[in-house]
Specification:
This protein has about 250 residues and is an alpha/beta fold. The protein has eleven helices and six strands. Helix 2 packs across helix 3, helix 3 crosses helix 4 and helix 6 packs parallel to helix 11. This is Pyrimidine 5'-nucleotidase. It comes from Pannonibacter tanglangensis.
């Protein structure tokens, strides 16, 4: 893992370290808790809708449904995958239900939009959610026009991250060369395969927790190497990357 504390944008990583992004031609961003900060808590609405869906489907109380939801998430990567494998549900109904939420907590982020627009090369959203959810979220952030495409759970053949097949299908469909790509995620497990493929990896953590996460990785030992950088401010991190690329 690279990076050092400090002041301003420089707290994300040393300028020398950020030159690791030299040659990157594709910038790949997860959606939830990555392109918008975790404190917006949009995913909490989705999480509750998932529990409600399971409770209705399996005729159980919501507390029991939540336990089942987390079991599916742990065992299959997404609750949807678990429901498909164990209950043969139709994904369209599930995706429409769980993403029927209030997007007003997501505010426009001109700083992030300008930084993404300035990145050299192609930009993608790669999400375990569906395209309509990604489109609504990107629109609320005001960043829609900066992305070439959205690679969603449907495009992935309903095979979610962190399964290697999902990343390989993304690379196949987009023509992205992993050695010239960077992946931004809020879940460490979703960065393991990108790192193995040769991508630069950036973990997005909740605001004010970057150093706590850094210390946790150091204690984890073998888990640390697949996270190259960490930041609790995606827009600021991208500005720092742009500065390093310009200086380099």
């Amino acid at each position: 893992m690279s990076g050092a504390p400090g002041s301003g944008e420089g707290r994300h990583a040393h300028t020398y370290d950020l030159r690791a992004f030299t040659g990157v031609e594709a910038w790949v961003f997860d959606l939830d808790n990555t392109l918008y900060p975790a404190h917006v808590n949009l995913f909490a609405q989705i999480d509750k809708r998932i529990s409600e869906y399971i409770a209705r489907l399996l005729s159980m109380d919501e507390a029991s449904a939540r336990v089942r939801q987390k079991e599916y998430y742990r065992d299959y990567g997404t609750t949807l995958r678990g429901l498909m494998m164990e209950h043969q549900i139709e994904p369209d109904d599930f995706l429409a239900y769980v993403h029927d939420i209030d997007y007003s907590p997501v505010q426009p982020d001109p700083k992030l939009g300008a930084a993404i627009a300035a990145l050299p090369g192609r930009k993608f959203i790669f999400t375990n959610g569906d395209r309509p959810h990604a489109e609504r979220t990107a629109a609320a952030l005001g960043i829609t026009d900066h992305f070439e495409d959205i690679f969603d759970i449907v495009a992935a053949g309903l095979m979610p991250k962190p399964n290697r097949e999902s990343y390989e299908l993304f690379l196949q469909k987009t023509g992205v060369a992993p050695a010239r790509a960077a992946m931004f995620e809020d879940l460490t497990r979703n960065l393991l395969v990108p790192h193995k493929l040769g991508m630069r990896t950036v973990l997005i953590v909740p605001q004010g927790t970057r150093e706590v996460f850094r210390e946790a990785w150091e204690m984890e030992g073998q888990d640390a190497p697949h996270v190259d950088f960490a930041t609790d401010d995606l827009g600021g991190f991208l500005e720092a990357v742009l500065g390093a690329l310009k200086a380099g």
